[in-house]
Input
Amino acid sequence: MSAALFRSSTISEDQEYSKFFGHVSNQIRIFTFPRSMSLSPTINAVDLSAMNSLGLACKAERVTDLNDLSQLPALSALACLSAPVVVLGGGSNLVLPARLERLVVRVQLKGIDLVEQRPDAWIVDVAAGENWHDFVTNSIRRGWDGLENLALIPGTVGAAPVQNIGAYGVELDSRIESVTAWHIPESRLVTFKREACGFKYRDSMFKRAGLGQWLIVRVRFCLPRPWQPVVGYPDVLRHPALAGTTPEAIRAQQIYDAVCDIRRTKLPDPAVLGNAGSFFKNPVVSESEFNALKLRFADIVSYPQADGSFKLAAGWLIERCGWKGKRQGRVGVHARQALVLVNYGQATASELLDLAAAIKQSVLKAFGVVLEIEPVLVSDAGD
Ligand code: EPU
Output
């Protein structure tokens, strides 16, 4: 099984893989490999600071690249000899320790393939190592609309389902048909339909299982047709890129332009200032908790949820505690978005986590609300 076959558009993946089926159920399909290729030689003592968007200094003892699906069994064989591996995509949602003895695997699988052009959807397969924003840009250019609200999110396609990325009214899971992932400990490739991925707000079963269990190799997108713009988010609706357009005449490119511009204005560019996007999730509270908070803080920013609970804007809570723009040594809270913690250079994970703990403590004290860290915290002992 090679990356070239993975990109094949003449034979459906199901037909090809059907030769190797081990098990099929409604939501999950399992494949096995007929042959295996060895892994790329490991590189020793690699500095990962340029490979994580927070720019944290991290010395990895062993790093290898995954370029082809047929290397997966060799990866499992290697992994069973040591602690769970660390799967590295774009490194945009990880907090890395100063030193990693665990094997680090850089996912370099490439390929974008229009599998089917159905009357009701574009079905597109994308290999995990593709850059997320480049794929979004490419898809809009080719008329596969539906991902424009998720433009400019750092990271890779394979990392996107792990935290179920979302922005400006669109959550990734609403655009996914299935995710194919390699279970490293059991050495098997499984395709999960969307319902089996356990997607929640900034969460999935891949994240809950911990790093080193599942390595996502491919995401199959289902982009509904006819395309419907999502412009409920005030910042997008009011953006000049949409000015003078009626709702019927809006094009995906306009939303894409608006989202890119909003993100560039509000969020720091990781290439300039290390960050992992939102460092905390927006917390969800019950209706009674929300009513009590609303009595004390009339201007609290909240979003009612379908189940009657309320999501609170963590950025507002943090700003109200006085943290916005504050610097603590080599780390700090971004001046335009209090939900984003930044590395001013040379910071370590522990400095960042100390700041996060102090913020959590303030928010708990002021509002009685517990903030949850959004990126994955990597330790050398396993996650
Ligand atoms: N706010 C403040 N102060 C701040 C930041 C925000 O008061 O410093 C309040 C404002 O009222 C603002 C509201 O919070 O209107 C919401 O802020 P924003 O639009 O920036 O969105 P967010 O809730 O802070 C979430 C996602 C972002 C995503 C945006 C836009 C999470 C954890 N974060 O942030 O995702 O881009 O919405 O949809 O859900 C990410 O996950 O890394 C990320 C950047």
